[in-house]
Amino acid sequence: MPKIRTGRTKYPEGWELIEPTLKALDTKMRDAEGESHEGKRKCESLWPIFRLAHQRSRYIYDLYYRRKKISRELYEFCLNEGWADKNLIAKWKKPGYNASVACSAFNPATITTGRPASAGCPSRVWSLGRLWNASIVGAVDVAVET
């Protein structure tokens, strides 16, 4: 959950570009937190919250490291204000997470097929062009070079 904001915070340049998406994800997070958990297991009631937290962190990660659309100042501001999870992003920066399809499964901007994405697999395990069965998600996917 992001820190409580006051009117004194000075936002870095470029904040107005990412603010609508972050506010929308924050609204979805509040809805997920207030959702009824009756009839669900304890862990199942937390899945939407984890998914949205990952999605928000992945959005900021992609903007800074992949697309290079935000400045370092804005990136660090988002980390310091709690908009993204530093530890989760640190894991994504490590080798083996570079071509993980599961990380992009939650990003609607990258889904083009209309079907669920497969579970990620470290790059040392797969070879290009080889099909595999992603039993976690129930899809078959092919390894591609990024």
Characterise the protein shown here:
The protein has 146 residues and is mainly α. Helix content is 45%, strand content 5%. It contains five helices and two strands, in the order H-H-H-H-H-E-E. It has helices spanning 15-34, 42-66, 72-80, 86-93, 101-104; strands at residues 131-134, 139-142. Helix 1 packs antiparallel against helix 2. The longest helix has 25 residues, at 42-66. The two termini are 32 Å apart.
Outline the secondary-structure elements.
Blueprint: H1 15-34, H2 42-66, H3 72-80, H4 86-93, H5 101-104, E1 131-134, E2 139-142
Antiparallel strand pairs: 1-2
Order of strands side by side in the largest beta sheet?
1-2
Largest sheet: 2 strands, antiparallel
Low-confidence stretches: 115-119, 131-146
Strand content: 5-15%
Q: Taking Cα atoms only, what radius of gyration do you get, to the nearest Å?
A: 17 Å
Specify the structural class: mainly alpha
Task: Report a brief summary of the structure.
Helix content is 45%, strand content 5%.
Q: Keywords for this structure?
A:
146 residues, mainly alpha, two-stranded antiparallel ribbon, 5 helices
